[in-house]
Design brief:
The complex is a heterodimer of chains A (338) and B (207). Chain A is an alpha+beta fold. Chain A is built from 4 helices and 19 strands. In chain A, strands 7-8-9-10-11-1-2-3-4-5-6-12 form a 12-stranded mixed beta sheet, covered by helices on one side. Chain A is globular, with a radius of gyration of 25 Å. By secondary structure, chain B is mainly α. A two-stranded antiparallel ribbon of chain B has the order 1-2. The longest helix of chain B is centred in the middle third of the chain and has 22 residues. Classes of the chains: A alpha+beta (338), B mainly alpha (207).
Chain lengths: 338, 207
Amino acid sequence: MKPVNYFAFTILLLLAFRAAVAQSSADAPQNQQQAQVLLEKMLNAEKNLKISGEQDTILYRPEQTFTASQTIVRQGDTAMRIEYNSPQSVAGDVFVDNGKLSWHYIPSAAKLEVGISGLGRFRRESDNILRRLGSQQLTAEIMGQEVVAGQNAQVVQVTAQHSWGEHRYWIDPNTGAQLKIQTFGNLGQLVSQTYFTKITYRSKIDGSEFDPPKVDSSVKIVPMTPRGSQAIAGLPTSTDCGFQPLLPSYIPPGFAFQSTVIMPMRGQKLVGLTYGNALVSLSIFEKQIIPDAGQSSPHDEMSTPRQGVVTAIRNGYQYILVGSLPTDVMQRVVQSMR
Amino acid sequence: MNLQWFNKQRRRVQCQLFSSKLSEYVDGTLDRDLMWQIKNHVAVCASCMDVVDSLNSIARLLGLANRHEVSSNFSGALEARIAALPRKTAQATGSVFANRTALSWPKWSSAPVRLTGSFAAAAMVLIGLLVFMKPPSVPVSVMMPPAPAVVRISDLVDQHREQSAGDPLSDASAQLLASSVDTIKVDPAMNHKLSDDDAAVLVDEEM
């Protein structure tokens, strides 16, 4: 080949490479845009879709893997019912949320827990997520397609930008139904997955399917959260807590305040603050230490009693942090409490 | 500060406004807007939440009670007992209605006595219904345990999961299962004690 041909060939190669790069960079936003549309469709479907079916849930823990199968009936964001079929330790457990109240019947403990519906929070947070997607705090990307429970699904990966959290969703592009979900930990490890093995789209669901679980009179009825627990709007004040609550001056990037709960405890109050980025959340529980008469305040210390939990004593306060964040990040949050 | 003060005042006013509506709220008979407002209020007001929980427990227990048909002569027997009841009471207490109540039921003519008779009839019907219904074996007051003396770390993990499960992008089924798994003392399938550590770790004692 003549040198001039080499030159022409190199030029052509460079042009082709540039065209490919330009094409892929043009594809990336298009892919993200499609993923965002799918995710929006999924959130809308979760609000409206009437479905029933069989699901498997797998929890991946360092010490063991735990698998359960359950029957689920769901009427958008207004009602749902889950009945566990296996394993033996949870088989027979029934969870019902009728949009007003929720019940968790645990036959093995002869206990029926009653609480306020959690579906309202779902409604409120959906719009928040769409805003975060719009502002690029969360990014969505289509990873491919698969068949789940006999339905075609697009796989969408959602990642928190400059922060922790990665979830994957298998979304039916026709209905928006979430057929499968995988959540990942801060080291990229699979933490949990839930998927339909059988799904039926329904036009109508009888309200009686969301009746409270039928139990006999020997079953103890208890509130889901400790008596007196109080969710309050906004950040707590010293009047709410009985002491001056401290707040973190550092929270992980992309995280925002979500809620406050105040729990009574041995004549004192324990305050819980939750922050999150829509994929991962962090709860900070705190209480003031009141030393017994004649005793000095305990020394500052910090420990990690179990995965995802950091406990600390600092400047006369006790802290318990719970969340799927790296330990050093949670420790940094504790150290920033002011 | 002003916003917090405003929120507190708003909650207080809502308590006064909604307290008489909580029963209808539990029954779901209010209009949609009011249901929504009360639901939002109950979610942030512990005292109203307690009332709603109690009302719901009562409704559920009454719903569970077996219903029995009354016997064919129930109405007649009830009327006879009602007819007998005021006369005895009046005679025993020397009430000013003694003369009137000495008359039989159909001959009562004055409004106060008719009213008293109606109340008595309503009370008897209620008593009759309660007698014929299976009483709950769990007193309502026992249903709400007192505030815990200590809070375990696992309780706080549960509280955290409860918050997280409401996130639309979370794996709510996994959160729910994790809570169920962790409350099991012994998992017979794996013969593995899952929550011994939690049981031993009390927030107060650990730190």
